[in-house]
Amino acid sequence: MAKKNDEAIVLLHYAGRIYKCFGTNTKSVIEYLIKIGNHVTGTEEDVEGRMTDFFLRRVTRFFNGYYDIKSYLGNNTHRKGYYITPTNGDMHYNGKIPYFINYNGNKFVYKPRDMRIDFEFNEALKVFNQFFDEDIKLPVVNINLFENNTGYMDFVSHKDNMTMEEAINYFRKFGALMAASKLLGINDLHCENIMATEKGPVIIDSECALVPDLIEIKEFSRMTLGRVRAAFLNKRNENSVFSVNGEILPLSTEKFQTAILEGFKSATSSFINNQNTLINLFNNIINKDLYIRIVSIATAEFYDNMFLLDTTIYDIYRNNYYFGVYISIDTIKDKVLEGLYNCIKKDFKGEIDFDKDNVIIILNELYNSLAYGEIPIFRIENYKTLYINNIAICDISLRDNYFKTLKDIFLQQIQWLNSDEAIEKLSETLF
After folding, report:
1. CA–CA distance from 47 to each of 2, 51, 268, 361 (Å)?
2. pLDDT, tens digit (0-9, with 9 covering 90-100), for 65-74
3. Domains contained in the chain, CATH given
4. pTM score > 0.85 for this model?
Protein backbone atom coordinates (compact mmCIF):
# COMPACT_ATOMS: atom_id res chain seq x y z
CA MET A 1 0.00 0.00 0.00
CA ALA A 2 2.76 2.50 0.92
CA LYS A 3 5.20 3.74 -1.70
CA LYS A 4 7.67 5.34 0.73
CA ASN A 5 9.86 3.51 3.24
CA ASP A 6 8.96 5.82 6.12
CA GLU A 7 5.25 5.36 5.40
CA ALA A 8 5.68 1.58 5.30
CA ILE A 9 7.36 1.67 8.71
CA VAL A 10 4.52 3.73 10.17
CA LEU A 11 1.94 1.38 8.66
CA LEU A 12 3.66 -1.65 10.22
CA HIS A 13 3.81 0.17 13.53
CA TYR A 14 0.07 0.82 13.47
CA ALA A 15 -0.70 -2.74 12.38
CA GLY A 16 1.20 -3.97 15.43
CA ARG A 17 -0.60 -1.53 17.70
CA ILE A 18 -4.00 -2.57 16.34
CA TYR A 19 -3.14 -6.23 16.98
CA LYS A 20 -1.98 -5.43 20.51
CA CYS A 21 -5.24 -3.62 21.28
CA PHE A 22 -7.74 -5.80 19.43
CA GLY A 23 -6.14 -9.20 18.86
CA THR A 24 -8.33 -11.41 16.69
CA ASN A 25 -10.39 -8.36 15.68
CA THR A 26 -7.37 -6.81 13.93
CA LYS A 27 -8.57 -7.66 10.42
CA SER A 28 -12.01 -6.09 10.88
CA VAL A 29 -10.52 -2.95 12.48
CA ILE A 30 -8.10 -2.43 9.60
CA GLU A 31 -10.90 -3.03 7.09
CA TYR A 32 -13.01 -0.43 8.87
CA LEU A 33 -10.21 2.14 8.82
CA ILE A 34 -9.19 1.54 5.21
CA LYS A 35 -12.70 1.18 3.81
CA ILE A 36 -13.22 4.93 3.79
CA GLY A 37 -9.71 5.33 2.43
CA ASN A 38 -10.72 3.40 -0.68
CA HIS A 39 -13.79 5.60 -0.93
CA VAL A 40 -11.62 8.72 -0.77
CA THR A 41 -9.30 7.66 -3.58
CA GLY A 42 -12.15 6.23 -5.60
CA THR A 43 -9.99 3.21 -6.43
CA GLU A 44 -8.30 0.21 -4.89
CA GLU A 45 -4.98 1.69 -6.05
CA ASP A 46 -3.04 4.15 -3.93
CA VAL A 47 -3.18 6.98 -6.46
CA GLU A 48 -0.37 9.47 -5.74
CA GLY A 49 -0.13 8.07 -2.22
CA ARG A 50 -3.46 9.65 -1.29
CA MET A 51 -4.95 6.52 0.28
CA THR A 52 -1.85 5.95 2.40
CA ASP A 53 -1.83 9.55 3.57
CA PHE A 54 -5.52 9.43 4.41
CA PHE A 55 -5.26 6.08 6.19
CA LEU A 56 -2.39 7.31 8.37
CA ARG A 57 -4.31 10.42 9.37
CA ARG A 58 -7.45 8.40 10.04
CA VAL A 59 -5.73 5.70 12.10
CA THR A 60 -3.93 8.35 14.18
CA ARG A 61 -7.25 10.03 14.94
CA PHE A 62 -8.84 6.63 15.63
CA PHE A 63 -6.28 5.83 18.32
CA ASN A 64 -6.72 9.26 19.89
CA GLY A 65 -10.38 8.41 20.34
CA TYR A 66 -9.71 4.84 21.46
CA TYR A 67 -7.32 5.82 24.26
CA ASP A 68 -9.60 8.65 25.41
CA ILE A 69 -12.57 6.28 25.62
CA LYS A 70 -10.60 3.46 27.25
CA SER A 71 -9.26 5.85 29.87
CA TYR A 72 -12.67 7.40 30.53
CA LEU A 73 -14.39 4.03 30.91
CA GLY A 74 -11.62 2.81 33.18
CA ASN A 75 -11.97 5.84 35.42
CA ASN A 76 -15.76 5.82 35.56
CA THR A 77 -16.97 2.22 35.49
CA HIS A 78 -14.70 1.05 38.33
CA ARG A 79 -14.78 -2.40 36.85
CA LYS A 80 -11.95 -4.74 36.02
CA GLY A 81 -11.92 -7.51 33.47
CA TYR A 82 -13.84 -5.72 30.73
CA TYR A 83 -12.61 -5.20 27.19
CA ILE A 84 -13.83 -3.03 24.34
CA THR A 85 -14.00 -3.58 20.59
CA PRO A 86 -14.91 -0.96 17.97
CA THR A 87 -18.14 -0.97 16.02
CA ASN A 88 -18.44 0.12 12.38
CA GLY A 89 -20.12 3.38 13.34
CA ASP A 90 -19.22 6.75 11.84
CA MET A 91 -16.24 8.43 13.45
CA HIS A 92 -16.79 11.79 15.19
CA TYR A 93 -15.15 14.10 17.72
CA ASN A 94 -11.43 13.38 17.41
CA GLY A 95 -11.62 9.69 16.57
CA LYS A 96 -14.55 8.63 18.72
CA ILE A 97 -16.82 5.83 17.54
CA PRO A 98 -19.24 3.57 19.44
CA TYR A 99 -17.61 0.56 21.16
CA PHE A 100 -18.85 -2.81 22.31
CA ILE A 101 -18.14 -3.42 25.99
CA ASN A 102 -17.80 -7.04 27.10
CA TYR A 103 -17.94 -7.60 30.86
CA ASN A 104 -18.54 -10.83 32.78
CA GLY A 105 -20.36 -12.39 29.84
CA ASN A 106 -22.58 -9.33 29.34
CA LYS A 107 -22.39 -7.03 26.33
CA PHE A 108 -23.12 -3.32 26.09
CA VAL A 109 -22.66 -0.53 23.55
CA TYR A 110 -20.88 2.64 24.64
CA LYS A 111 -21.63 5.79 22.66
CA PRO A 112 -19.20 8.69 23.14
CA ARG A 113 -21.82 11.37 22.52
CA ASP A 114 -24.56 13.02 24.53
CA MET A 115 -27.14 10.26 25.10
CA ARG A 116 -29.69 12.15 27.18
CA ILE A 117 -32.23 12.24 24.38
CA ASP A 118 -31.86 8.46 23.83
CA PHE A 119 -32.41 8.01 27.56
CA GLU A 120 -35.53 10.20 27.55
CA PHE A 121 -36.97 8.34 24.55
CA ASN A 122 -36.62 4.99 26.30
CA GLU A 123 -38.12 6.45 29.48
CA ALA A 124 -41.05 7.62 27.36
CA LEU A 125 -41.51 4.08 26.04
CA LYS A 126 -41.87 2.90 29.64
CA VAL A 127 -44.74 5.36 30.07
CA PHE A 128 -46.37 4.18 26.82
CA ASN A 129 -46.09 0.57 27.96
CA GLN A 130 -48.09 1.40 31.08
CA PHE A 131 -51.23 1.87 28.97
CA PHE A 132 -50.40 -0.13 25.81
CA ASP A 133 -52.19 -3.46 25.40
CA GLU A 134 -49.97 -6.45 26.17
CA ASP A 135 -49.51 -7.41 22.51
CA ILE A 136 -47.97 -4.03 21.60
CA LYS A 137 -45.80 -3.38 24.65
CA LEU A 138 -42.38 -2.35 23.31
CA PRO A 139 -38.95 -3.61 24.38
CA VAL A 140 -37.05 -0.96 26.34
CA VAL A 141 -33.27 -0.71 26.34
CA ASN A 142 -31.52 0.19 29.59
CA ILE A 143 -29.25 3.24 29.19
CA ASN A 144 -26.73 4.31 31.81
CA LEU A 145 -25.42 7.87 31.65
CA PHE A 146 -22.04 9.13 32.86
CA GLU A 147 -21.38 12.60 34.28
CA ASN A 148 -20.40 13.89 30.82
CA ASN A 149 -23.76 12.57 29.47
CA THR A 150 -22.16 9.91 27.28
CA GLY A 151 -23.45 6.49 28.13
CA TYR A 152 -23.72 2.79 27.49
CA MET A 153 -26.79 0.80 26.58
CA ASP A 154 -27.72 -2.87 26.56
CA PHE A 155 -26.56 -4.73 23.48
CA VAL A 156 -29.55 -6.13 21.60
CA SER A 157 -29.20 -9.19 19.39
CA HIS A 158 -30.62 -9.36 15.91
CA LYS A 159 -33.25 -12.02 15.22
CA ASP A 160 -32.33 -13.42 11.81
CA ASN A 161 -35.31 -15.69 11.25
CA MET A 162 -38.85 -15.89 12.64
CA THR A 163 -41.89 -18.06 12.25
CA MET A 164 -44.93 -16.42 10.69
CA GLU A 165 -46.57 -16.16 14.11
CA GLU A 166 -43.46 -14.46 15.55
CA ALA A 167 -43.33 -12.08 12.58
CA ILE A 168 -46.97 -11.07 13.02
CA ASN A 169 -46.37 -10.38 16.72
CA TYR A 170 -43.24 -8.40 15.79
CA PHE A 171 -44.99 -6.24 13.19
CA ARG A 172 -47.87 -5.48 15.54
CA LYS A 173 -45.28 -3.94 17.88
CA PHE A 174 -43.61 -2.29 14.88
CA GLY A 175 -46.87 -0.48 14.17
CA ALA A 176 -47.02 0.74 17.78
CA LEU A 177 -43.41 1.91 17.52
CA MET A 178 -44.28 3.94 14.41
CA ALA A 179 -47.01 5.73 16.39
CA ALA A 180 -44.67 6.44 19.33
CA SER A 181 -41.85 7.61 17.04
CA LYS A 182 -44.09 9.96 15.08
CA LEU A 183 -45.52 11.46 18.26
CA LEU A 184 -42.01 12.16 19.55
CA GLY A 185 -40.72 13.50 16.23
CA ILE A 186 -37.98 10.94 15.54
CA ASN A 187 -36.07 11.23 12.28
CA ASP A 188 -33.48 8.87 10.79
CA LEU A 189 -35.46 5.65 11.29
CA HIS A 190 -33.61 3.80 8.57
CA CYS A 191 -32.73 0.13 8.34
CA GLU A 192 -29.59 0.43 10.51
CA ASN A 193 -31.23 2.26 13.40
CA ILE A 194 -34.11 -0.17 13.94
CA MET A 195 -33.03 -3.57 15.25
CA ALA A 196 -35.28 -6.59 14.77
CA THR A 197 -35.07 -8.52 18.03
CA GLU A 198 -36.84 -11.50 19.54
CA LYS A 199 -38.89 -9.18 21.79
CA GLY A 200 -39.79 -6.70 19.07
CA PRO A 201 -38.33 -3.70 17.21
CA VAL A 202 -35.74 -1.60 19.06
CA ILE A 203 -34.53 1.85 18.01
CA ILE A 204 -30.81 1.73 18.74
CA ASP A 205 -30.12 5.37 17.83
CA SER A 206 -32.66 8.09 18.63
CA GLU A 207 -30.46 11.21 18.69
CA CYS A 208 -32.69 12.81 16.01
CA ALA A 209 -35.77 12.87 18.25
CA LEU A 210 -38.08 15.75 19.25
CA VAL A 211 -37.79 17.50 15.89
CA PRO A 212 -40.76 19.93 15.98
CA ASP A 213 -41.65 19.76 12.29
CA LEU A 214 -41.70 15.94 12.39
CA ILE A 215 -44.13 16.13 15.30
CA GLU A 216 -46.32 18.60 13.42
CA ILE A 217 -46.23 17.35 9.83
CA LYS A 218 -49.09 15.08 8.81
CA GLU A 219 -47.09 12.42 7.00
CA PHE A 220 -44.43 9.77 7.65
CA SER A 221 -42.26 10.16 4.55
CA ARG A 222 -39.61 12.28 6.28
CA MET A 223 -38.82 9.65 8.92
CA THR A 224 -36.54 7.72 6.49
CA LEU A 225 -38.81 4.67 6.71
CA GLY A 226 -38.62 4.21 2.95
CA ARG A 227 -35.20 2.62 3.44
CA VAL A 228 -36.75 -0.01 5.71
CA ARG A 229 -39.38 -0.81 3.08
CA ALA A 230 -36.68 -1.02 0.39
CA ALA A 231 -34.50 -3.29 2.52
CA PHE A 232 -37.31 -5.84 2.91
CA LEU A 233 -38.30 -5.52 -0.73
CA ASN A 234 -34.73 -6.05 -1.98
CA LYS A 235 -34.04 -8.82 0.56
CA ARG A 236 -31.04 -7.04 2.09
CA ASN A 237 -29.44 -8.19 5.32
CA GLU A 238 -29.92 -5.13 7.54
CA ASN A 239 -30.59 -4.58 11.24
CA SER A 240 -34.29 -4.04 10.60
CA VAL A 241 -34.69 -7.03 8.26
CA PHE A 242 -35.33 -10.69 9.04
CA SER A 243 -36.56 -13.74 7.19
CA VAL A 244 -39.75 -15.67 7.85
CA ASN A 245 -39.26 -19.40 7.62
CA GLY A 246 -36.04 -18.75 5.71
CA GLU A 247 -37.36 -16.14 3.25
CA ILE A 248 -37.31 -12.34 3.41
CA LEU A 249 -40.78 -11.07 2.52
CA PRO A 250 -41.80 -7.48 1.64
CA LEU A 251 -43.62 -5.28 4.15
CA SER A 252 -46.54 -5.27 1.71
CA THR A 253 -47.20 -8.93 2.59
CA GLU A 254 -50.88 -8.94 3.61
CA LYS A 255 -50.35 -10.44 7.06
CA PHE A 256 -47.57 -7.92 7.80
CA GLN A 257 -49.69 -4.97 6.68
CA THR A 258 -52.58 -6.11 8.83
CA ALA A 259 -50.38 -6.56 11.90
CA ILE A 260 -48.62 -3.19 11.49
CA LEU A 261 -51.87 -1.28 11.11
CA GLU A 262 -53.47 -3.16 14.04
CA GLY A 263 -50.54 -2.21 16.27
CA PHE A 264 -50.61 1.38 15.06
CA LYS A 265 -54.36 1.76 15.65
CA SER A 266 -54.13 0.17 19.09
CA ALA A 267 -51.34 2.56 20.10
CA THR A 268 -53.01 5.70 18.76
CA SER A 269 -56.30 4.78 20.41
CA SER A 270 -54.49 4.50 23.74
CA PHE A 271 -52.95 7.95 23.10
CA ILE A 272 -56.47 9.43 22.94
CA ASN A 273 -57.40 7.77 26.23
CA ASN A 274 -54.24 8.99 27.99
CA GLN A 275 -53.77 12.52 26.65
CA ASN A 276 -53.07 14.16 30.01
CA THR A 277 -50.35 11.63 30.79
CA LEU A 278 -48.75 12.23 27.40
CA ILE A 279 -48.89 16.02 27.69
CA ASN A 280 -47.23 15.87 31.12
CA LEU A 281 -44.58 13.56 29.66
CA PHE A 282 -43.90 15.91 26.76
CA ASN A 283 -43.72 18.97 29.04
CA ASN A 284 -41.26 17.18 31.25
CA ILE A 285 -38.99 16.22 28.33
CA ILE A 286 -38.83 19.57 26.53
CA ASN A 287 -38.00 21.39 29.76
CA LYS A 288 -34.83 19.35 30.21
CA ASP A 289 -31.34 20.12 28.90
CA LEU A 290 -31.11 18.11 25.70
CA TYR A 291 -29.11 18.04 22.49
CA ILE A 292 -30.99 17.30 19.28
CA ARG A 293 -28.99 16.29 16.23
CA ILE A 294 -29.86 17.98 12.95
CA VAL A 295 -28.83 16.71 9.54
CA SER A 296 -27.63 19.58 7.33
CA ILE A 297 -26.67 17.31 4.43
CA ALA A 298 -26.75 13.53 4.04
CA THR A 299 -23.90 11.61 5.67
CA ALA A 300 -23.06 10.15 2.26
CA GLU A 301 -22.34 13.66 0.97
CA PHE A 302 -19.78 14.20 3.71
CA TYR A 303 -18.07 10.94 2.70
CA ASP A 304 -18.17 12.00 -0.95
CA ASN A 305 -16.48 15.29 -0.11
CA MET A 306 -13.64 13.53 1.71
CA PHE A 307 -12.78 12.35 -1.78
CA LEU A 308 -12.31 15.97 -2.88
CA LEU A 309 -10.01 17.23 -0.14
CA ASP A 310 -6.28 17.74 -0.44
CA THR A 311 -4.13 15.84 2.05
CA THR A 312 -2.29 19.01 3.12
CA ILE A 313 -4.40 20.98 5.60
CA TYR A 314 -2.40 24.04 6.55
CA ASP A 315 -4.40 26.73 4.77
CA ILE A 316 -8.13 26.19 4.89
CA TYR A 317 -8.73 28.88 2.27
CA ARG A 318 -6.56 27.37 -0.46
CA ASN A 319 -8.05 25.79 -3.57
CA ASN A 320 -7.43 22.09 -3.82
CA TYR A 321 -6.35 20.37 -7.00
CA TYR A 322 -7.37 16.81 -7.68
CA PHE A 323 -7.48 14.91 -10.99
CA GLY A 324 -7.52 18.17 -12.97
CA VAL A 325 -10.42 19.77 -11.08
CA TYR A 326 -10.14 22.67 -8.63
CA ILE A 327 -12.21 22.08 -5.52
CA SER A 328 -12.65 24.54 -2.65
CA ILE A 329 -13.66 23.71 0.89
CA ASP A 330 -16.09 26.61 0.43
CA THR A 331 -18.17 24.35 -1.83
CA ILE A 332 -18.82 22.01 1.07
CA LYS A 333 -19.32 24.92 3.44
CA ASP A 334 -21.99 26.48 1.20
CA LYS A 335 -23.93 23.19 1.01
CA VAL A 336 -23.79 22.84 4.78
CA LEU A 337 -24.81 26.43 5.49
CA GLU A 338 -27.76 26.15 3.13
CA GLY A 339 -28.75 22.87 4.78
CA LEU A 340 -28.56 24.46 8.24
CA TYR A 341 -30.70 27.43 7.19
CA ASN A 342 -33.31 25.07 5.77
CA CYS A 343 -33.31 22.70 8.77
CA ILE A 344 -33.69 25.44 11.33
CA LYS A 345 -36.35 27.25 9.34
CA LYS A 346 -38.36 24.17 8.43
CA ASP A 347 -37.78 21.73 11.29
CA PHE A 348 -37.56 24.20 14.18
CA LYS A 349 -39.54 27.16 12.76
CA GLY A 350 -36.59 29.38 13.64
CA GLU A 351 -34.14 31.80 12.05
CA ILE A 352 -30.36 31.95 12.10
CA ASP A 353 -27.86 34.56 11.01
CA PHE A 354 -24.23 33.51 10.61
CA ASP A 355 -21.59 36.22 10.94
CA LYS A 356 -18.00 35.96 9.69
CA ASP A 357 -16.73 34.38 12.92
CA ASN A 358 -19.49 31.74 12.83
CA VAL A 359 -18.57 30.79 9.28
CA ILE A 360 -14.87 30.49 10.17
CA ILE A 361 -15.73 28.10 13.02
CA ILE A 362 -17.84 25.96 10.69
CA LEU A 363 -15.18 26.02 7.98
CA ASN A 364 -12.42 24.94 10.36
CA GLU A 365 -14.47 22.16 11.90
CA LEU A 366 -15.64 20.86 8.53
CA TYR A 367 -12.11 20.63 7.24
CA ASN A 368 -10.72 19.18 10.45
CA SER A 369 -13.38 16.47 10.43
CA LEU A 370 -13.42 15.51 6.75
CA ALA A 371 -9.64 15.48 6.33
CA TYR A 372 -9.46 12.77 9.01
CA GLY A 373 -12.40 10.70 7.81
CA GLU A 374 -14.83 11.98 10.44
CA ILE A 375 -18.45 13.08 10.08
CA PRO A 376 -19.08 16.51 11.62
CA ILE A 377 -22.08 16.66 13.94
CA PHE A 378 -24.52 19.55 14.12
CA ARG A 379 -26.80 19.72 17.15
CA ILE A 380 -29.17 22.14 18.82
CA GLU A 381 -29.03 22.49 22.60
CA ASN A 382 -32.28 23.22 24.43
CA TYR A 383 -33.93 24.44 21.20
CA LYS A 384 -31.61 27.45 21.44
CA THR A 385 -27.90 27.09 20.60
CA LEU A 386 -26.40 25.56 17.45
CA TYR A 387 -23.25 23.45 17.82
CA ILE A 388 -20.81 21.85 15.41
CA ASN A 389 -19.11 18.91 17.11
CA ASN A 390 -18.71 20.24 20.67
CA ILE A 391 -18.26 23.90 19.72
CA ALA A 392 -21.06 26.45 20.14
CA ILE A 393 -21.64 28.49 16.98
CA CYS A 394 -24.54 30.83 17.71
CA ASP A 395 -28.09 31.03 19.05
CA ILE A 396 -31.14 30.56 16.87
CA SER A 397 -34.18 32.83 16.98
CA LEU A 398 -37.45 31.02 17.65
CA ARG A 399 -40.89 32.38 16.93
CA ASP A 400 -42.89 33.98 19.76
CA ASN A 401 -44.60 31.62 22.22
CA TYR A 402 -42.59 28.79 20.68
CA PHE A 403 -42.97 26.28 23.51
CA LYS A 404 -46.69 26.93 23.96
CA THR A 405 -47.12 26.41 20.23
CA LEU A 406 -45.05 23.23 20.39
CA LYS A 407 -47.28 21.82 23.13
CA ASP A 408 -50.38 22.67 21.08
CA ILE A 409 -48.84 20.90 18.07
CA PHE A 410 -48.16 17.82 20.21
CA LEU A 411 -51.79 17.70 21.32
CA GLN A 412 -53.01 18.10 17.73
CA GLN A 413 -50.72 15.27 16.64
CA ILE A 414 -52.33 12.92 19.18
CA GLN A 415 -55.65 13.61 17.50
CA TRP A 416 -54.31 13.27 13.94
CA LEU A 417 -52.56 9.97 14.61
CA ASN A 418 -55.95 8.47 15.46
CA SER A 419 -57.41 9.46 12.07
CA ASP A 420 -57.97 7.57 8.82
CA GLU A 421 -55.62 10.01 7.09
CA ALA A 422 -52.76 8.92 9.37
CA ILE A 423 -53.42 5.28 8.46
CA GLU A 424 -53.34 6.18 4.76
CA LYS A 425 -50.09 8.15 5.09
CA LEU A 426 -48.39 5.35 7.01
CA SER A 427 -49.53 2.83 4.41
CA GLU A 428 -48.17 4.99 1.57
CA THR A 429 -44.76 5.16 3.28
CA LEU A 430 -44.40 1.51 4.29
CA PHE A 431 -46.30 -0.50 1.69
Report:
1. 10, 7, 56, 31
2. 999 998 888 8
3. 5-111 (no CATH), 116-146+156-287+406-430 (1.10.1070), 291-401 (no CATH)
4. yes
